[in-house]
Design brief:
It is built from 9 helices and no strands. The protein is mostly helical and 206 residues long. The chain has 2 domains: 61 residues, Arc Repressor Mutant, subunit A (Orthogonal Bundle); 140 residues, Tetracycline Repressor, domain 2. The chain is elongated.
Length: 206
């Protein structure tokens, strides 16, 4: 029987290696985070993945499609990691401190707000909505734990969405850098401690 020819750009399947789409997503995410949306081209992604540009276009018809998928996969992974960090039996304040420290370490060299803002103007309304939904799932992972803590009496009852957004706003403060690139505090540990202490006092806990 004559073998059916592959579609243009379709990669050869090799079960012994990581799927090509996974390689593309991981590589493209790194490139986007390091260089920003505008600078990275589909050709850059192809070269970094050691595949043809046709292979990239087999999976993603536009750079905006690729970027959207990268960010959604990244946010899903972040949501899963948040849930794991907050799932242990330690007091909530300790778990939040651990989460803050991990977040600040992972985003130390990335201006996430500007990074996302620069890309959004190039995305369709549907793509922006997809990313917003994934972002909300990250927030829900934190909100769920805060609601549990309220129900157990570990923290006072407040509007859970308000408290979640307050916590996330403080996380953003942790990424602040002045004109010379200096953070507010000399170490991530010190920044994380100040954030969690300030958040704790904001909840009305001495």
């Amino acid at each position: 029987m004559q073998q059916k020819p592959r579609n243009l750009g379709r990669p050869r399947h090799d079960q012994t290696t990581k799927p090509t789409k996974s390689v593309i997503l991981e590589t493209a995410t790194t490139l986007f985070l390091q260089n920003g949306y505008k600078i990275v081209s589909m050709d850059d992604v192809a070269k970094a993945c050691n595949v043809t540009k046709a292979t990239i276009y087999y999976y993603y018809s536009t750079k905006a499609d690729l970027y959207t998928d990268c960010m959604i996969v990244m946010m899903v992974r972040i949501s899963e990691n948040i849930s794991k960090v907050l799932a242990n039996e330690q007091p909530l304040k300790i778990r939040l401190y651990q989460l803050i420290k991990i977040h600040l370490s992972a985003t130390e060299d990335i201006d996430l707000n500007n990074f996302m803002r620069d890309a959004k103007i190039n995305l369709s309304k549907e793509q922006q909505e997809q990313m917003k939904q994934s972002e909300e799932k990250m927030h829900e992972a934190i909100q769920h734990v805060l609601v549990e803590a309220m129900e157990k009496g570990e923290i006072p009852h407040h509007d859970s969405k308000f408290v979640t957004q307050l916590f996330l706003s403080l996380l953003n403060v942790g990424n602040y850098r002045d004109a010379s690139g200096q953070a507010i505090f000399s170490s991530i540990e010190e920044m994380a401690q100040h954030i969690v202490d300030f958040f704790w006092k904001g909840l009305g806990i001495s």
